[in-house]
Amino acid sequence: MKIHNTIIALLLGVSLAFPIGTEAQSMSSEQTTPITVLEDGVPKKLKMRGADRFEIKWNYNGGQKYFSEVVDEATGTMYLLSENGVLHALNPKGQVIWQSDLGLDWAHDLKIGKDGSLYVLNDNISEFEYGEPAWIHAIDKAGKERWTMKLPHMYSYDMLFDVSADGIMFMLTDKEVTAANQEAKLVWANDQVATYESDSYLSNDVIRLTWIESIKTLLVERTDNKLAALDQNGKIKWQRENVQPGAVYVSEDGMVYTVGEKGLTFLHASDGKDRAEAPVDAATLNKVGIPHDGKGNYYREYNDYTIWKVDRTGKKLWSYNRPKEQTGTLASQLVSDRQGNVFFSDTGGSIFSLDPNGKERFIVIRNDKMFTYTRIWIGSDGVLYASADGMGILAIAPRGK
To answer: How distant is the alpha carbon of residue 297 from its chain centre?
Structure first.
């Protein structure tokens, strides 16, 4: 909310409550919610701080403990693959559109390709040495299976898999970064942009594969602040080792944004070279997913327990230290809404929201002692959606919205 400078007393009060460059204040109200989760097999109720102003609008778990999910950004439809192999389609209000039993006895990673199909991935990252195959299942958006593919060695999951508009699949295999068509035929393989180590299982240094349709380029994000790009034939276009540490965001036109110590920086995936400027209007930032306050400032994870709001150059405007009683470390990538509020989660399964001044809006308190990954996203209606093991899907919004 914009703060007007017409009342000196009000301005003074705001500056005292949220001093620039210092830890923002937190709230204290807390209520028990109707949502039950299991912790070490014992049921417990989720608690919510800030429940006087916010509420869990709905919760869906389909009678299952675990889901893998993707969201169709164009329609807001959520596709959930549950642990019993049933695919669920939900609208933004949590209503079931359809359910499709895929005949699977497991739930693995679910992805949506740029060709519009859903892909179920069963990697064999731990079983490849025993001869266990990997699987890819292609599903249409009506829940009908298109085809099933068996691969001898595939290590891709979630962010390590992407699909072009014409159905070429990009993944990690024993041939490293690989492209295959939908007849399971190898299109190309590149063994120069990833480093593999074989121990009890095969590990690698690739964080994410992103196919950029507009420039026919596969961006390979690696550990140690390294980036590489391959053309549509698998040839190296460029490699870099000096990318700013921080969260990486890729736009549809090939601009690569990084939010880190230097603030917001840019390079282009066509040549890997830095750009002095790039589109940073609100519409672009929202589409790319860069967390921002709508006034030229950005949110970044400073360490495992602290969130910073920074200006374009990386200067800290305020910091928020997660309450000490919370379990685990920060987990999900930060997201923001159209009003500049920021959202994130931790490995204890708790979900946080701060306003643009760094003040807590709400915390959904789970504090699971086991590692719990929670994915969060903002719908077009401004509702926060969250998916976590043992909790299903939650929708959180201001009361009465």
So the answer is: 21
The amino acid at residue 104 is L
Handedness of CA 310, 320, 354, 369 (dihedral sign): positive
pTM: 0.88
Is the distance from CB of 336 to CB of 291 less than 8 angstroms?
yes
**Residue-wise pLDDT tens digits, 31-41:** 999 888 877 67
* φ/ψ of residue 160, rounded to 5: -95, 35
Beta-ladder partners of 30 = 49
Encoding tokens for residue 235?
Answer: 């040839």
- Give residue-wise pLDDT tens across range 96-155: 999 999 988 776 789 999 999 999 998 877 766 677 788 899 999 999 999 998 888 877
Question: Could you tell me which residues come within 8 angstroms of residue 55 by beta carbon, excluding any fewer than 6 positions away?
Answer: 48, 396, 397, 398, 399
DSSP string, 298-318: EEEEEETTEEEEE-TT--EEE
Q: Are 158 and 171 in contact (CB under 8 A)?
A: no
β-strand pairing of 134-139 with 186-190: unpaired
For residues 308 and 279, what is the distance between their CA atoms, to the nearest angstrom? 22
Q: Copy the structure tokens of residue 174.
A: 């024993």
> Residue 289: which of 255, 245, 325 has the closest Cα?
255
Straight-line distance from the first to the last Cα atom of the chain, in angstroms, rounded to the nearest whole number: 18
